Amino acid sequence: MTQSTGPTPTRVRQVGVDIQETEENRAVVEAVEADNEDCTVRHMPGLVRITSPTRIVVNRESVEQRLGREWETHEFQLAIVSYFGHIAEWDDDQILIQWDH
User: Fold this and answer.
1) pLDDT digits (tens, 9 = 90+) for 3-40
2) What pTM was computed for the model?
3) What CA–CA distance (Å, rounded) separates 82 from 84?
4) Least packed by Cβ within 10 Å: which of 2, 18, 49, 84?
């Protein structure tokens, strides 16, 4: 018989997005990194993986500032390779990826 020494540790369920690494998508990655202080950015061949223990917010205005032109949130579909989490919000100004509990 095994004796328990305390409560079972809670596992954090990360959310994330894989973005194709291109010159134009660099602005998206920089904007996401700036607007999500708890995110981790990992560069791999051909793509960038962004993860967070809470949520990932993509703000249109932040992307536009870095891109130097107007950017519509539907363009995000062309940038992403995959994501994990739920897209809780997607409108003209913001995309929110998080787990719904």
Assistant:
1) 556 566 667 789 999 999 999 999 999 999 999 999 99
2) 0.85
3) 7
4) 2
Residue-wise pLDDT for 36-82, tens only, equals 999 999 999 999 999 999 999 999 999 999 999 999 999 999 999 99
Q: Could you tell me the residue ranges of all domains in the chain?
A: 15-98
Q: Which CATH superfamily is domain 15-98 in?
A: Monooxygenase component MmoB/DmpM (3.90.56.10)
**What's the number of CA atoms in the CB half-sphere (13 Å) around residue 6?**
2
Six-digit token string for 80: 């992403």
| Identity of residue 75 | E
DSSP sequence for 21-87: --TTHHHHHHHHHHH-TT-EEEEETTEEEEEESSEEEEEHHHHHHHHTS---GGGHHHHEEEEESEE
Q: In the chain, how long is the greatest CA-to-CA distance?
A: 65
